[in-house]
């Protein structure tokens, strides 16, 4: 089984998770902005994407490569501020074609956000978002930042990969 990881990141945490999964599995890791990121060369794909402004950043690449992803993609991991739940599922569903998503396992990972590293414009947008957010904890995080990046949270992904590999051997 030839597996590979394809990721899209804005601020680095999705890349960090993708590299950890790559180290643990030996699968090559590609940034989707890299011209060498060709999913047609692999038969087991793990897609990883940052979630920015309610959408997965990988969505345009997915659209452009849909024919090669159908039938190959197995696991999607999203990296967001919000944790797993219906809100996140809605944003993911609005980002990817149902035909692809329905055949994938989705694992929600949490990322990091450091306001000091954002552009001035993005910082102002986050401040306004914080003012409008009725959830006090989420509002504080939008204002002050957060860091949930944790290597152990890739364990469910490694388990799924192992299960797929075992099912390949037994069929
Ligand atoms: C401008 C901006 C917008 C964001 N929008 C959302 C959002 O809509 N929902 C969410 O759960 N997290 C949101 N986040 C948090 C990101 O998902 C989090 O920072 C994640 O780690 C980004 O992944 P990356 O580091 O790979 O770019 C946002 C972060 C930034 C900086």
Automatic annotation (TrEMBL):
Name of this chain's protein: Flavodoxin domain-containing protein
Signal peptide: none
InterPro entries: Flavodoxin_dom, Flavoprotein-like_sf
Domain (Flavodoxin) ranges: 5-127
